[in-house]
Amino acid sequence: MARRKRRVRADRVIILLLLTALVMGLLAFGIYEGISYFSNREKKDPVNNNTDPKPVETSEGIKVSLVDYQVYTGDSENLGFNFIVAELNFKGDGPISFDLGNLQTSEKIYLNNISKYLNTLQEKSYKVSKLDIKTMIISDQNDYTCKVFIPYTTDSYSLRLLNSVDASMIEFDLDRHINDISTLKFETEQQIEIGNTNVTVSSCSVSTMMLHNGMEYQVPATMNVYTFSINVNNVEGDVMITDAKFVRAADEEVITCMDETYESVKQVNCLGKRLVVGENGALFFETIASSGSPDYSGFLMLMFSNSNDWVKIPTVLE
User: I need a labelling partner for 4 at 20 to 30 A (CA). Which of 19, 36, 124, 210 fits?
Assistant: First the structure.
């Protein structure tokens, strides 16, 4: 009897050992399969892997060369600077995207930081749009030529432009290619008389620094804002400009004036405001920007509160 009990006990031990071995085997297999599964999943779907490509320095490999240039002088006492309009060629292996911050003059002026010079030109009644310059160098071609603006204050006979990408240099002879800056002046102003009201309308310029309800308004890159300055010479009674529009001559496209909630940093919007001698303002028109030269010849149309007729002024948006 005792022998039978020992045999049963031994059989139980053997069975327990076999079950333990089976469980351990299944557990090991499960762990192996789990590791394999997650390893393969990570390869197929690397959610947690930092596989984002590093930013491409698109300016690298782009060669910059001089095609032509014009030197504009003659009003440095008024402006505080002279400037060059340089036609540059950008060439690379693919689409062009070049940061003008890579170009620095020998006076340490970076070409991506020229807005104050352009604003000064506009404030002094020069038409920047006539220069046909670019402030962003982007093209889907691998060979792109455009004009850039290069201000300078030196009295030297030359100016150097340094390219930090490849340490190349372009040198300008400031005694050559000289242009008369007066060719950029606004066209003749036009006097308007409605009864005893007399205002002067200046030919338009491009505004880049705008406000909307007193807050900064970023003009979209796809748009231009054109400004007509209104100078009040004489007025009697409560007179205001109640409506304004630009009508393109080619197809009679109508561009309506921006409402009174918009103004520039330098000029208030005079639409719908009582005209007062000495308190001058402007009218603003926002249009789609174009890389080409669309024909925006047409008429500025003004409606005064003391008249039932439109005042029609031949002009051009440029």
Answer: 19
